Amino acid sequence: MHTRRRTSTAATVLRSVLDNGPVARSTIARLTGLSPAAVTRQYAELADLGLLREVQERRVPRATVGRPHIPVDIDVDRFAVCGVHIAVPHTTLSLMDLRGRVLHQEREPHGERTPEAVFGRVLDRFPAFLEATRAGRTPLGIGLATGGWVDPERGLVVRHSQLGWRDVPAREALAPLGLPVHVESHSRALARAEQLFGDQRTRFSLVHLFVGNVVDAAIATGGTVHHGPRSASGDVAHLRLEGSTAECPCGRRGCLQATVSDRAVAERAARAGLIPEPSLPLLLDRAEHDSDARSLLRERARHVGRAAGLLLDVINPEVLVVTEAGVIGFPECLAEVRAQVGDRATDVVPTSFGRDVLSVAAGSVVLDAIYGSPLDLCA
């Protein structure tokens, strides 16, 4: 019991510094309800671990006689976390600091898409990437994020229909890199990233809707991301959309993923002659200067907005966060999404992480573990 309480107190102090730092220890005590002595003890332990440090150059003046308070902050120079995000067309490697900021990232298209080929390439590339980018920081772990059905407890990619993967032991595949490996779906990882580093309104409840080649969602209530039995929650690929006639591999028409996935919209653009081959990056480039390409992205955004409206009605979160390339790159796409949800338009927001979103998804799998249990992860 004492150990659990100590771990919980450490996490509370660390999160308070993340939210408010640089911040005086007396302010942490006031904000968290902990005693000044408890805050001082936990600060000392977290500082010994290298997670917190005093910020000597910025002092908080006291109203009474005595030396000023020395504020404390997250130590962003000692440690880093690594990320591996596996998308349908490519893998992204990333390095992040403890405030969730992407320090470095690189992306490489897949050759073969078998688990053996994809993870084999990661094992080949990762050591050189880390050595070239860490700048003296010690890596605390690797986060593996991808779409589809992911079971973090078992470290499995249970099913990724777009890659054709089933029951892939992702944690085991990255074990040769010699660092702790944490595995999660990218939607759930991004939901936690928003709660840690993004929109403050997401702290209590949110829905995160991810629209890429895979379309899935994450739900958080009471500050906790829902996993469900066998971590199977978040599958919205076959949510039926009014107004869509897109054919789905499941045999029905109008399924969300078949309507709005990157592949689906890129194929429509190629058939319309807007791009030479089905490629979302080509479509996004074309949309920078072509109204027909932007119109196609706005059409996708309207469908995304209808799905967002359904999720808002059923789940009723404080905020619904949308990660979708058009919404990230074009304000009119966000406006189309919001237009579909009526009087809750202001509750729909784009991801806080822009074009770094895949890197953040992967690295945040480790950061969530650190901020949830810092004494265990960094001891």
TrEMBL record:
InterPro entries: ATPase_NBD (IPR043129), ROK (IPR000600), WH-like_DNA-bd_sf (IPR036388), WH_DNA-bd_sf (IPR036390). It comes from Saccharothrix variisporea. Keywords: Kinase, Transferase. GO terms for molecular function: kinase activity. Belongs to the ROK (NagC/XylR) family. The keyword Kinase applies. The keyword Transferase applies. This is Putative NBD/HSP70 family sugar kinase.
